[in-house]
Write a structure and sequence with these properties.
The complex is a heterodimer of chains A (about 625) and B (about 150). Chain A is of the alpha+beta class and about 625 residues long. In chain A, strands 2-1-5-4-3 form a five-stranded antiparallel beta sheet. In chain A, strands 7-6-10-9-8 form a five-stranded antiparallel beta sheet, sandwiched between helices. In chain A, strands 12-11-15-14-13 form a five-stranded antiparallel beta sheet. In chain A, strand 19 and strand 20 form a beta hairpin. Chain B is of the alpha/beta class and about 150 residues long. Chain B is built from six helices and five strands, in the order H-E-H-E-H-E-H-E-H-E-H. Chain B has a five-stranded parallel beta sheet with strand order 2-1-3-4-5, with helices on both faces. In chain B, strand 3, helix 4 and strand 4 form a beta-alpha-beta unit. The longest helix of chain B has 18 residues. The termini of chain B are close together. The relative contact order of chain B is 0.17. The interface between A and B is medium-sized, with 16 and 14 residues.
């Protein structure tokens, strides 16, 4: 195949010599890129093999010199474009163009084509043709296309991401920023483009330091980094973001900056914080609790024990977890405890508060009170047990019990003493009294008046002393000789009191009234004595008017409150305690005879019946005595 | 029998550990218009020896009346009373219990043991003499009792 025009070649041959022509031809053919030339009529004046090959490939034709090249181009658009280009160059233009051949054809080829005019050798700059050099850029174009497609794909993904994604170039310019920046930060793409410092400005003041540190560390290292920090959004809200970034390199391994992914983790952080707060609270509560708290799973495994649990048992949590319930429960109590845990976790109704005993690390038995509840521990059914050390309570109960026994014994002894003493005191007293009187009886005529006065004082003293002793004896008998409680109708008791006091009532014209009174459980003799003393007092300490006494009763929770009110002298409230004391008198014995035992005995009787006695009084207007009697259970 | 009583002094056994009380009884008896012989023993053992004519009491008379204190050393009045009342030879001798105790249970117990009379020692000498007088009246009634 002749590829250089003969006619022209002849001319060239002439000018450059035959050898040089061969060299040029060889060189021309060796060019891998297609090269050709046409004259002003678009007829080939030369082409190399590469060009012929490519035309063959594209249009499946074998080209020849001196033929119009346009005729070989089967695709209309290609042909028109080629004609247009060639025409322009013939008219004096230089042209570099990228073109695509075989558009729509299976093998599309991309070319970079340089069009240069060929000038006549005569030096008159007359254009006699066009030299066209084609560089096949198909491979480069394909690579570019692939990159474009892939970039588009990734951009699409990045643009639609919930996460805020950006890419900074090595010189900290914004290479890419996802629109989701607005969702995460409240600032839109434009805000970030306009302010390169916005990345740092939105960081929460408290987190600026760690973020700074992060930026500093990524400059020194190259691996991926992630951290979580708070930002302040455009609307002033605080958002938590999970920031992770890594260096980016191009294909040739050159630094292409850093890409960062920022996820809004505010909700997660809030949940974490709530969980953390819950845990902190649980920790604070359990660690500061004064009771031991132990959590046991259904398999008996101890999964939690607080500080107090270690104090009470003497074992550390690790030890407690290792030894389990059987390691510290009292052997006698273990089966019961195990059964209760099992039943409780099975949803059965078992006692959830009871006392038991554990053996601490030192081997000492510790009485405890357990309060247990079914719960969940990390999703598993668990038994939460609250343990209170009741050693002190037990001790004080013991002490109290002992004191009570002591007190009872001492009371008994005292009563025995009072009884015996009054008994034995009577004997010598009778001696004093009797022999003084015997002297008077036998020697009255032989003594003077002084001697008789002295004898009277001695006898009077002895008599008073005996009354006191008898009263003391009475007083002690309230408890020592008390009768069993039986059902007593107070209405009939009052009736008996009337009979007993009949003389005094008639003497003073006293008016005594009574409301309907209840039936109570009491010592009949003592209750009668109680009313007798109070009614007797009401008449005894009367004013100038006829004494009016009323007896009534009302119920108050599990007590009956009885009242005995009068219109008598009244009692100064300052003596509210004193009048109930033994042998305490508010009047001289000359005005109102008596030893002052009556109200003391009343108080003792009321107390024996589990009640209280008190009075309300207004001087000169009267007094009301109140006393309570416990109502028997079931009444 | 009746004639015999007017001649013969009444034999009274006083069982009383307290010399003061014993003397008072003696003094009260002195004011009595009945002739009486008061034998005084200080405890229950001696009282029973006297009644059974044992030891130093071998020649003692059978008392017509016993005045018995309840609180006695060695053998107390309740035991003495029980023994006398369970002895067929002695059970008809009238017994007057003299005590300072007003306690119901003492009184009840004494009557249960067939004491004939129960008298609380009074503080007042006049009352005491009255008591002794009532014993005299009591004596007038017991003379009508069947013979021993």
């Amino acid at each position: 195949m002749e590829t250089l025009s003969n006619t022209k070649g002849m001319k060239t041959q002439n000018r450059i010599g035959l050898q040089q022509y061969s060299i040029l031809k060889g060189l021309f053919e060796s060019i891998r890129n297609p090269v050709f030339s046409v004259d002003n009529s678009f007829n080939y004046t030369s082409f190399n093999k590469a060009h012929a090959d490519i035309v063959k490939l594209l249009y499946n034709v074998n080209i020849e010199l001196s033929h119009n090249m346009l005729e070989y181009i089967k695709v209309k658009e290609d042909r028109e474009k080629e004609e247009h280009n060639l025409t322009r160059v013939i008219n004096g233009d230089h042209l570099v163009e990228e073109s695509v051949s075989g558009e729509g054809q299976p093998k599309r080829l991309y070319f970079k084509v340089t069009y240069d005019p060929i000038y006549d050798n005569d030096g008159n700059n007359k254009i006699i043709g066009v030299a066209v050099m084609t560089i096949d850029i198909t491979k480069r174009k394909h690579a570019e296309e692939l990159l474009r497609v892939s970039e588009e794909k990734y951009r699409l993904v990045a643009d639609s991401s919930d996460d805020w994604i950006y890419w900074l170039t090595p010189d900290k310019k914004l290479r890419y920023n996802s629109p989701s920046c607005e969702r995460v930060t409240g600032y839109n793409l434009e805000d970030f483009e306009n302010n390169l410092h916005l990345f740092k400005e939105i960081v929460h003041p408290d987190d600026k330091e760690i973020v700074e540190k992060h930026y500093k560390s990524i400059n020194e290292e190259t691996g991926p980094h992630s951290l979580e920090y708070r930002i302040i959004t455009k609307t002033g809200e605080t958002h938590w973001i999970n920031h992770s970034c890594k260096p980016v390199f191009d294909k040739k391994g050159r630094d292409a900056g850093r890409s960062a992914n920022n996820r809004n983790v505010t909700e997660r952080k809030k949940a974490e914080q709530a969980l953390h707060e819950n845990e902190e609270n649980f920790k604070a509560v359990t660690e500061n609790a004064n009771d031991a708290i132990i959590v046991t799973l259904g398999n008996g495994l101890h999964v939690f024990a607080n500080r107090r649990a270690s104090e009470i048992t003497g074992y550390s949590f690790k030890e407690i977890a290792a030894i389990g319930l059987k390691g510290y429960a009292h052997p006698d109590e273990l089966p019961k405890l195990n059964e209760r845990i099992k039943k409780r976790l099975a949803g059965e109704d078992v006692p959830n508060q009871y006392e038991t005993v554990i053996i601490n690390k030192q081997g000492k038995a510790v009485p405890i009170e357990i309060t247990a509840a079914k719960s969940l521990w990390q999703g598993q059914p668990s038994d939460i047990v609250i343990i209170r050390d009741i050693t002190e309570r037990k001790q004080s109960q013991e002490t109290l019990k002992k004191s009570l026994i002591d007190l009872e014994r001492s009371n008994e002894e005292l009563e025995q003493f009072a009884y015996v003493a009054s008994h034995d005191l009577q004997e010598p007293l009778r001696m004093v009294s009797s022999y003084t009187q015997l002297i008077e009886r036998r020697y009255k005529d032989k003594l003077d008046q002084d001697a008789n006065d002295f004898i009277n004082f001695a006898v009077d003293g002895a008599n008073r002393m005996q009354r006191l002793i008898n009263d003391l004896l009475d007083y002690s008998r309230v408890t020592t000789r008390g009768k069993k409680f039986e059902s007593v109708d107070i209405n009939s008791i009052i009736g008996q009191v009337f009979i007993y006091l009949q003389h005094r009532i008639e003497e003073t014209h006293a008016i005594i009234s009574q409301d309907d009174l209840p039936i109570i459980d009491a010592d009949e003799i003592q209750i009668q004595r109680l009313f007798q003393n109070l009614i007797d007092n009401a008449i005894k300490f009367r004013g100038k008017e006829i004494p009016i006494v009323n007896i009534s009763a009302y119920r108050e929770s599990n007590f009956y409150v009885f009242t005995v009110s009068d219109n008598g002298l009244g009692i100064d409230q300052q003596y509210s305690d004193k009048i109930f004391q033994i042998f305490q008198r508010l009047n001289t014995s000359r005005e109102y005879p008596g030893t002052g035992i009556g109200l003391a005995i009343c108080k003792r009787i009321v107390e024996r019946h589990g009640g209280k006695i008190w009075f309300e009084s207004e001087m000169g207007k009267g007094t009301t005595f109140f006393f309570t009697i416990q109502i028997k259970e079931g009444d | 029998m009746e004639a015999k009583n007017s001649w013969k002094p009444i034999e009274i056994l006083l069982v009383e550990d307290n010399p003061g009380d014993a003397r008072l009884a003696v003094e009260a008896m002195k004011e009595s218009k009945f002739k009486n012989t008061l034998h005084h023993v200080e405890d229950g053992i001696n009282a029973l020896d006297f009644l059974h004519k044992r030891g130093k009491y071998i020649n003692s008379p059978r008392p017509d009346l016993i005045l018995l204190d309840l609180n006695l050393p060695k053998k107390d009045g309740r035991e003495v009373l029980a023994e006398i009342k369970s002895d067929p030879e002695l059970k008809r001798i009238p017994i007057v219990i003299l005590t300072i105790s007003k306690a119901e249970e003492d009184i009840l117990k004494s009557y249960n043991l067939h004491a004939n009379c129960f008298i609380t020692k009074p503080l007042d000498i006049d009352q005491f003499i009255l008591v002794v007088k009532s014993i005299e009246d009591f004596w007038l009634t017991i003379v009508k009792l069947p013979p021993q």
